[in-house]
């Protein structure tokens, strides 16, 4: 086992990050050490990289970035009982305490003392990563690393889309980021009758079409509400998936969901937003679900089966693969506007 490794580290409280040599993590008794095969860039990583207000309030430097990965266990702690060296794993990034009321009532994903991999502790943009056994997920070896690494955001989409059945229903997705694109594919394999997506970036809208979206709506240039009302005969949609979190998406979503319909709120707003509670929710009898993370581990079983049995092809969303040393290019691809990438996957092995 080497003593040193390469890692992408936020070394100072400023924009950017550095690829530097650091010590290979020493694991705790309940942890495993993983040799990272693939790791992918998430929007949260971009916030940390850009060093926005949220990152400044949450991240303590120096810290290794990243929370999405797939890799092979090379060492296990003395208290680890269910994993062994050689297991091919990914990780649930929400690390629960297993002691709070949420954890004790089956809501580990919203643990009252939640820690997040790569946010509250060192992450996986590195050759090796240490994670607690409780969040390790054994992968089927048939799933390639570039797909296994994105199970975490795919799980967001699975939870958001299927928190209630969508079979035979109309679904409207706001947001053409990777999770919105995943949601289009999930809605298709889950049997949605009509899938519409509102986005801003032509490249990503074309990916949404490949994933199964029927109607592509450009939020900049199209009359979103007129198109949706025409497609639904003026009734509105059965299901709204808000993956954007903007005031415009929230306003349009609650106007366009039909009476008795459902809104899944996953997009994180930049600040406080307004909601017409009376007309948008109360008088319409709308059900709202707040979506945070993935159900542990119900969502993971669904995600794994969709990939293992090839029911869902996510290859259109994995648009770029790079060696870890080109992480700056990866972040540039993620930040370029208009957006030209889906998921960017990096490979640490040289």
The CATH class of the largest domain, by name, is Alpha Beta
**Count of domains:** 2
Low-confidence stretches: none
User: Superfamily at the CATH H level of the largest domain?
Assistant: Medium-chain alcohol dehydrogenases, catalytic domain
How much helical structure, as a percent, in the residues?
25-40%
Separation of termini? 16 Å
Mean pLDDT: 97
EC number: 1.1.1.103
Enzyme class: oxidoreductase
Domain Enoyl reductase (ER): 16-346
Cofactor: Zn(2+)
Give the helix/strand layout.
Elements: E1 4-10, E2 18-23, E3 31-40, H1 43-50, H2 53-58, E4 63-64, E5 68-76, E6 88-91, E7 94-95, H3 101-104, E8 115-116, E9 128-132, E10 136-138, H4 145-148, H5 151-162, E11 170-174, H6 178-189, E12 194-199, H7 202-211, E13 215-218, H8 224-231, E14 237-242, H9 247-256, E15 257-265, H10 277-282, E16 287-290, H11 298-308, E17 318-323, H12 327-335, E18 343-347
Parallel strand pairs: 11-12, 11-14, 12-13, 14-15, 15-16, 17-18
Antiparallel strand pairs: 1-2, 1-4, 3-5, 3-9, 3-18, 5-6, 6-10, 7-8
Helix pairs in contact: 5-6, 5-11, 6-7
């Amino acid at each position: 086992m080497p003593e040193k490794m390469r890692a992408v580290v936020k070394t100072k409280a400023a924009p950017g990050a550095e690829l530097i040599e650091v010590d290979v993590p020493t694991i705790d008794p309940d942890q495993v050490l993983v040799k990272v095969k693939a790791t992918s860039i998430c929007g949260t990583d971009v916030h940390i990289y850009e060093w926005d207000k949220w990152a400044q309030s949450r991240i303590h430097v120096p810290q290794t970035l990243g929370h999405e990965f797939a890799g092979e266990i090379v060492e296990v702690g003395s208290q680890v009982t269910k994993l062994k060296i050689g297991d091919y794993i990914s990780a649930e990034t929400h690390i629960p305490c297993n002691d709070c009321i949420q954890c004790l009532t089956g809501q580990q994903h919203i643990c009252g003392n939640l820690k997040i991999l790569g946010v509250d502790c060192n992450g996986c943009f590195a050759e090796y990563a240490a994670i607690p056994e409780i969040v390790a997920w054994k992968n089927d070896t048939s799933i390639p690393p570039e797909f296994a690494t994105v199970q975490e955001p795919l799980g967001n989409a699975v939870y958001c889309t299927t928190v209630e059945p969508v079979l035979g229903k109309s679904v409207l997705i706001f947001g053409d980021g990777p999770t919105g694109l995943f949601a289009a594919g999930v809605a298709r394999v889950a049997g949605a009758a009509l899938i519409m997506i509102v986005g801003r970036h032509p490249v990503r809208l074309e990916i949404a079409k490949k994933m199964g979206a029927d109607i592509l709506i450009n939020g900049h240039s199209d009359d979103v509400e007129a198109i949706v009302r025409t497609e639904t005969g003026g009734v509105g949609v059965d299901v709204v998936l808000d993956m954007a979190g903007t005031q415009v998406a929230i306003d349009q979503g609650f106007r366009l969901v039909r009476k008795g319909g459902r809104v899944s709120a996953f997009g994180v707003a930049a600040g406080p937003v307004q909601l017409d509670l009376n007309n948008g929710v109360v008088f319409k009898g709308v059900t709202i679900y707040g979506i945070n993370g993935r159900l542990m581990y119900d969502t993971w079983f669904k995600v794994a089966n969709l990939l293992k049995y090839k029911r869902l092809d996510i290859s259109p969303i994995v648009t770029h693969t790079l060696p870890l040393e080109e992480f700056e290019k990866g972040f540039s691809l993620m930040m370029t506007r208009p957006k030209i990438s889906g998921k960017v996957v990096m490979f640490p092995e040289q």
